[in-house]
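User: Let's play a game. I give you a shape written as tokens, and you guess the letters that built it. Ready? Here's round one.
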């Protein structure tokens, strides 16, 4: 079991990895670790996470109020987003937020990562939906993210970046790496004619492997909101996993039906 100082050192190490891999620019990104139900360590606001030392790290309570912070340091401006994840996902011990280039590109384009293109992404992540846009540091982001927390372990933040969470800091960080790798592969294959997707049977076999591994987190095959609604589940639902946000295809369908009804009514 790591002591608090060791966890702070690990947070600095992860900060270097996030920064050195270009998953954030300048002072962007933040992450946190749960110590117990009322104590959480988090990165400070407004510093480069690539150059932190343990005394930078702040401690907050379950509401994000400061319990301890050295002079000149305040908790991340996104602490409310982290706290919402811990509140609604008791299995989570660490939350990582970054702006990786390819994942953020998809988040800006409004395209969720839902195509089954490689085994590791299917097993580790399932689908990655998009939480609707919110102003950074306000409750809009925690509220948008909340819609996806019971179904997914990684979420794109519309026009902003990505959020991952898991049972440890290293696993939450690794999920961020996996999201970015998945996004990058998707982007690259889109440049040369688009990906060949794995078929339903292949996806089912991968879900079975995930079950056998007993990986922590929400299982994409069991919890997809579409599956619960009797529709095709993750990786076959064509991007309809984006929680409350109306999928574009549905919006187009509604517009088309409206047009037809209006023309029949002579309007
Ligand atoms: P903080 O430095 O306040 O954590 O904010 C960085 C960021 O990326 C906000 O989205």
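Assistant: Ready! My guess for every position:
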């Amino acid at each position: 079991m790591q002591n608090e100082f060791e966890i702070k050192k690990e947070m600095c190490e992860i900060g270097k990895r996030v920064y050195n891999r270009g998953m954030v620019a300048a002072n962007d990104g933040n992450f946190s670790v749960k110590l117990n139900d009322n104590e959480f360590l988090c990165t400070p606001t407004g510093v480069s996470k690539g150059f932190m030392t343990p005394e930078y790290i702040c401690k907050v309570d379950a509401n994000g109020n400061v319990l301890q912070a050295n002079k000149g340091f305040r908790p991340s401006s996104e602490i409310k987003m982290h706290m919402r994840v811990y509140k609604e996902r008791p299995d989570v011990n660490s939350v990582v937020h970054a702006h990786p280039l390819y994942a953020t590109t998809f988040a800006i384009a409004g395209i969720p990562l839902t195509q089954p293109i490689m085994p590791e992404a299917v097993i580790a992540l399932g689908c990655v939906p998009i939480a609707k846009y919110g102003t950074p540091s306000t409750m809009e982001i925690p509220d948008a993210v909340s819609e996806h927390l019971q179904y997914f372990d990684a979420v794109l933040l519309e026009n902003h970046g990505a959020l991952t969470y898991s049972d440890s800091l290293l696993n939450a960080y690794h999920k961020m790496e996996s999201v970015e790798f998945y996004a990058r592969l998707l982007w690259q294959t889109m440049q040369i004619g688009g990906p060949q997707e794995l078929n339903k049977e292949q996806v089912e076999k991968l879900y079975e492997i995930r079950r056998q591994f007993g990986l922590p987190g929400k299982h994409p095959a069991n919890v997809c909101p579409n599956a619960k609604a009797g529709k095709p589940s993750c990786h076959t639902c064509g991007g309809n996993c984006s929680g409350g946000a109306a999928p574009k295809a549905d919006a187009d369908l509604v517009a088309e039906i409206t047009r037809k009804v209006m023309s029949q009514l002579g309007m």
